[in-house]
Amino acid sequence: MGNRGPRRRDLLRMAGGGLVGAATLGGSARGAVAQPAPPYLAPAPHPAPAQLWQEYLAAPDTHPQVPNVSYAGYRRGERDIPRLPERVNAKTFGATGDGNTDDTVAINAAIDATAAAGGGAVVLPPGTYKTSGLIRMHHSGVVLRGLGTSRTVIFCDKSLEEGYAFNRREGDLSQWSWSGGLVWFVPKRLLESMRDAEFLGNEGWMDNETLTPVVADASRGARTLAVEDAGDIRAGDHVLLAVRNVPDSSLLAHLAGDVDGTAAYDWNSRATRLRPEISTWAGAPNFVDYRWPVEVTHVSGDQVTLAQPLKFDLRTVWEPRLQTLGPVVRESGIEDLTLRMRLTQQQPHNRDFGFNGPAFSAALNCWARNVHVENADNGFGLHSCKGVTLRDVSVGGRQRHHSYICRVQAHDNLVTRFRIDRATVPLPSGSTHHGINVEGLASGNVWSDGVMENGTFDSHRALPFENVRTDITVTNDAFVGGAGDAGPRFGARFAHWNVRVTNGRTYAVAIHDMAPRAAVVGIAGATTFASGLPRDFTGDLGSVSEALGSGAVPADLHAAQLRARL
Prior knowledge:
The chain is of the alpha/beta class. The chain is built from ten helices and 30 strands. The longest helix is centred in the N-terminal third of the chain and has 13 residues, at 104-116.
């Protein structure tokens, strides 16, 4: 579009994406037949393109409230998820699918053999595959594939605590309450490192060698960095942009939008967990740096051009540098099956046993497609990963702690056409359900085209920023979490765009009254428009709202941004 901005004809075309209605409901993860939209989903008649949308189109990388999340998901949305060819049938390695035999060893052997043969899909024919331990997705280019959610079932008979590692540390709290999965996409070396540390400490990218310092400041929206020596960097490389979380908290204040209240905020006491130099929290090593994996598209002299614009101003006082990614799982996935847990009662808050669905750690351009998770403690987990797409995914069965987790610097991931089914077993006393969670400096993530029959928009502190929830119908009946010393609930530029609330409750949805530089557009079905959450920052937040009480165009902010960019 250049600096002149889009033509009016393009504005109207790109503002498309459909009005809220039956097609949205019909896109559920389990292939439901489209039904007429109930009254609470109906937007105002013929809504005009949102003013904020038109402003965004004129400055997509630098809008003060609306983040550019068009790069979220597999390969930045520029390619569709591939369909890898079948390499092996798990039954040839001894898997039975009879629902009684322990198939854990056979499935892992089939995965290892597929990787050794150059990658492809491990197929699980129709049946129920009982497991008693971890399914280890350590390899790149490997897919675990069933033949449909109603035909192929992996039945997890033991939790992570029972079948992998006894893990109740920090008193009686369980690390499995927020990390790990019974199908775990994670480099072997990283998993070994985490286990050696009893899952206390660094959970993300490791063995990151510095390639070059960044030697000049750069503004939000910039793509080209001046570096000291680009000799070891090539176009097509993925690098880790690391930025030091310095003791004066200036990086944290900037990620919160540098609003007036950041100067008065007591970072050392209210955000102790984000202050590694003073914190005794076991997770503090995850926040020594902000760490963002990104692809390099061009190198010229000592200028390195990135595939995405910067999400914040880069200042040399924060010691920015480009590093190697270290061990990583790439281009791997799970698809077309159900992951069903042995039915147990949900535990009190943060004491889960680890009946957790697919998890992605140090994973790049991976996916879950057409996967249903049932009777889980936690449904899907995104931890220090990049470019992961969860599409046509759902969670159901008994109540769970988190349905969708996004934490520990998980960046630019996409959860789309997702569903949270109403729980078949009520929430036990002392337990908590959160919903769609984001925390821990996670940025650029999107939840779109979803139906949440229970849960809420859970921002779990530790300063996540530039994340979007859009085109979602929610029965908003849960609560947010986060430790009191984990810092602000929101960083800058959260967007909640086109949300239908079925029970009138805007708690944690209408966040323009407490989140810095946020954009809240198109909140329908609400009785009030207040977040119900306490403010972290005093003074002017710089947030905006539009079309409260009705729908807005475009319906899906992420899809419209991607169309506009491509």
